[in-house]
Specification:
11 helices; 0% strand; 283 residues
């Protein structure tokens, strides 16, 4: 295990800081009016730019507007609350210098894995291969902003917030109380909050209890992947691909989701080999 949570700083006011952050995040994603728009108001120039862009490219404008919301939440909940008020440092929430090359190489490898899965499924089923409509229906600007939105917006915020911030603070709180097996218990408890946060805008094609169980299991595996790789940005790459896999070939949505889930298991089991053999990794 490459990442030790014992090396992270305990937040000022401990677990209370995490619970306040979790509650504020729920308020921001469910409230209407000025409160609900606060993440966009924090970065109003980007919101203004998205409105200008809407006159020429509505899809690109929507991607920029949604990206602005995630970056606004990052500023408020990570920058102001976690770093400013709770006294944490970037490395205490998984953001370490020199990790981006390794993460980029891992993300490219995961993207290649998804494409190979699609080719393999097409070959095994005997169906003809066709280019995914994404590449001809989306403008280059909209595609680029969508990549930024899903990787550096959704992926970055959710991995830093739910894994980078919450997991270490649960771990410190359990260790202070001398709870046995503090690390696995911290993983299970902290990732429960990730699953519960999806209730207000639940959209999975599964009954709510089953869907929350799937989300919880997925988030637990991601937490262990972070502990195994020591690089939270690899999770950001996976998260971006899970939401926006950039498939070259047309494929059913459930196939892409299944490939993303298998990817976590492959990375967990095969990380030592992957880490040694792919260019840009190690160090």
């Amino acid at each position: 295990m490459r990442h030790s949570l014992a090396n992270t700083r305990r937040a000022r006011w401990g677990l209370l800081c995490v619970l306040v952050a979790f509650g504020l995040n729920l308020v921001l994603i469910t409230a209407g009016g000025v409160v609900g728009r606060l993440p966009w108001l924090v970065l109003y120039p980007l919101l203004w730019l998205s409105r200008l862009l809407a006159q020429v490219d509505r899809e690109a404008a929507l991607a920029l507007e949604l990206l602005t919301g995630y970056w606004g939440r990052f500023v408020l909940l990570i920058g102001v609350l976690a770093w400013g008020i709770c006294g944490l440092r970037p490395r205490d929430v998984g953001l370490q210098r020199g990790k981006w090359r390794e993460a980029l190489a891992a993300t490219v490898a995961m993207w290649v894995f998804i494409q190979l899965v699609l080719v393999g499924i097409g070959w095994a089923s005997g169906s003809s291969l066709a280019w995914h409509p994404l590449w001809r229906q989306t403008t280059p600007l909209a595609l680029g902003l969508s990549v930024v939105r899903y990787f550096l917006g959704v992926g970055l915020f959710e991995e830093v917030f739910y894994r980078g911030l919450m997991l270490p603070q649960f771990y410190h709180a359990l260790r202070e109380r001398q709870i046995n097996h503090a690390l696995p218990v911290a993983v299970l408890l902290s990732q429960t909050l990730f699953a519960l946060s999806h209730i207000p805008h639940y959209a999975l094609p599964l009954p709510l209890p089953l869907g929350l169980l799937v989300l919880w299991l997925e988030s637990v595996l991601l937490a262990w992947l972070w502990l195994r790789t020591g690089n939270l940005l690899i999770l950001v790459g996976w998260h971006g691909l899970a939401d926006f896999p950039l498939p070259l070939l047309a494929a059913p949505e459930n196939v892409l989701e299944g490939a993303a889930f298998v990817l976590i298991l492959v990375m967990l089991i095969g990380w030592p080999v992957v880490h040694q053999r792919l260019p840009g990794m190690g160090g």
